[in-house]
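fyi for ur records
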Amino acid sequence: MIGIIDYNMGNLASVQNAFAKLGSETVVESNPQNFAKYDKLILPGVGAFGDAMQHLREREMIEAIKAFGVSGKPMLGICLGMQLLFESSEEFGSHAGLGLIKGSVIHFDSSKFEEKLKVPHMGWNRMFTKEHPLFKGLDDEHYLYFVHTYHVHCADEGDIIGETYYGYKFTSAVAHGNIMGIQPHPEKSHKNGLKILQNFINI
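which gave:
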């Protein structure tokens, strides 16, 4: 059984509908005491990092998510949900994250852009992936849908399993053991996104 964490900061219906298209039952879960009963957890997210952590704190979810993270059972962070897995973010100040993956969340540095681009990074872009069960059956390069102004910086390059180019190369997918994250929205990425979710189901 797959649980989708409801902390009032995610596009839950579209994520749940994507799993339904794959014939997989999910439960939108708002009670942290129930997290441990699931085989897998999804941490979605749309909005600001600090607000998201505040919502998790108010709902007493932080320790339950951390406990699930060290349980060995698969967990997937999507978009902001992936960023929350990291130690800190500089979005609208300095905020502590869940700390399940070492690294930080930083703003796109437009001074490093090799061409004139707008921030946020919005629309379809390619992800260059490393070999990982999350990407089984996908080409090394495939298009996915992105909407974000900040991106993660991994302390350990070994945690990077996907990269995307927007002005410069940035990390767009991570995996640290059982803890995985992707910056694009698989639920908005048609067949490639559904394939990633199917692979997560199969892990």
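The first helix runs from residue 12 to 21. thats all i got for now
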